[in-house]
Amino acid sequence: MWIDPKTSSPPEPRINWNAKLKTLKGELSEEEARKGLGQFLAYNIQFTVRILMGIILKPFQAVMIKGWFEKNFSLACWGRSCAKSTLVGIFAVLYGIFNANTTILIVSSNFRSSRRILETLESITKKSAGLLMKQVFDGDLSRRNDLFRWKMINGSSILCLPLANGEGLRGQRANVLIVDEALLVPKAVIENILKPFLAASANITERLQIREIEDKLIRLGKMKEEDRRKFKSTSKMILLSSASYQGEYFYEVYLDYLKKINEEVAEEASYFVSQLSYEVIQRLAPDILDKGVIEDIESGNTPQSVIEREYKAHFIQDSEGFFRAKKLIACSVPDGGRPCVEIVGEPGAEYVLGIDPSNGGDETNDHFAMSVLKIISKPDGRKIGLLVHSYAAAGVSLVDHINYLVYILKKFNIVYISLDASQGDNSDFISICNESDIFKGERFRLEAIDADFGKEDYLETAKQIRKSYNRKADRIVQKQAFNSAFLSASNDLLQAHVDFQNIMFAGKALACDGQVEIMSGQDIGNIHKTHKLFSNNQEGNPMYSFIEMQDSWIDMTKYEMTAIQVTVSSLGVRQFSLPQNIRRVKSATRTRRDNYSSLLLASWGLHLYLQSQIVEVQAPAVTFSPMLI
Length: 629
Hints:
The protein is α/β, with parallel strands linked by helices. Strands 3-4-5-2-6-7-1-8 form an eight-stranded mixed sheet, sandwiched between helices. A hairpin with a 5-residue loop joins strand 10 (368-377) and strand 11. The model has no long low-confidence stretch (mean pLDDT 84).
């Protein structure tokens, strides 16, 4: 579907540079030749990309790039694995080439995603087909932990900044702003930081000079007010994402852009919306999509809601999983609201920790996940859990996981720990920690609660917890085996917690004005500098990455929950897992369920802990019978 905007004035005529170049005769000066070549290359995007990068663009991809060139505000809602991030990276290079002294800024929900676009472009220059593109840049890609920058020889530059550095972002100037994974970027960031960020024109000095001259001419009567020069907006913002649920902000932006395209509006800015399903890509560019993914989608093993939203780029009302997306949204603190995620616990507050360990050190393995629930009291006296801190890491060492647990224990008043101990008491993560030099150096030792956590009667278990639990002795660990009875009961409980909002999700730090600056001043020790996931052995301040990852992990937890499906085995046992096609994917960026599992443990632990505080434990009867000696 193609929608032409309704405007009172006809569109500006487009120059066919190919036809115009055919009319040129005789010899050209060097300046005319350079200008003509530039116009030809800008007009023929596919040809330019092929000789510059060795990449053969499909016609629809060239159309997308031209749309981004022409319009001020663009929204690209494409299915997963449709190469939108790679294409926008190509656009950034082209725009910088054809617009000298231009700054293109790329941001994303986390710094890793945005800088991956630049790293992909860098990899192109290392191939023989991309050697010509390498000559465009003035040296190598500059890497810092809080800034990636690649300068061009014509004065343009492409840079990536972490969104968590709100003040730094406000201080930057750019002509083009690219927001990857825009679905995960808070509304407050887009409205209060990114849009105003583009309000200032790049040629503001020239505009002020022209306005000053026009003012003089009007005063002298040599010019009328209506004859003032109309400046065309040159700032650009491009939002990239897969589709969201209809209750989320990205859908509001999508509708707003479509409204401005459909209606006649007297706005200086122009808009472009593209919405591509995997089916369109499969027909137009079948070599882009992974064949195995297509087979899984069409096999019937993937929930229809996942196909509609993730692959067909349709905005849907709700998920079809065990945990409903609408209810998870209702359980989430809105963007800009508080309480926010925490990196240091509130003094006097109590926290419950859920741990789903993973022993694999490869980036494609399961995440080692932890979820921290803050116990808060509602006005009616009811106590609920608020997810304020998460952790999800793969491809790092066991030492990193132990150090992160130490950080949590130091900075949060953890009163209860629920741990997946399916591998046995002697080889579980807490036992390993107790024997580590790290725990011994900190004089930490966590003890297991003596209770039968395999019972279906949780009240009886709560009584056992009350008898054995000892906070002063650090006997606070619930070692939980993942048997069918536990999985069924804990998932039902977590679903009920979501339905009645007994589990809530903290707001994003990025969305709260000034919150990042407050958190940046908190003492978290050296975990953000020593942990491989954040330090990355680069210069700069990794604190921003540490904070923004908390926002990402909270979102990841909810996303994993919406993907959980329930199946029943031949023996009638309920199983809670990801769809089969998602489980088959083995990559570092694949969807996992480990954050969901750690929250499941934390939710179950919170329930048992609160029940153990109120359950009545009958004192053993003491009798005395006299004896004859």
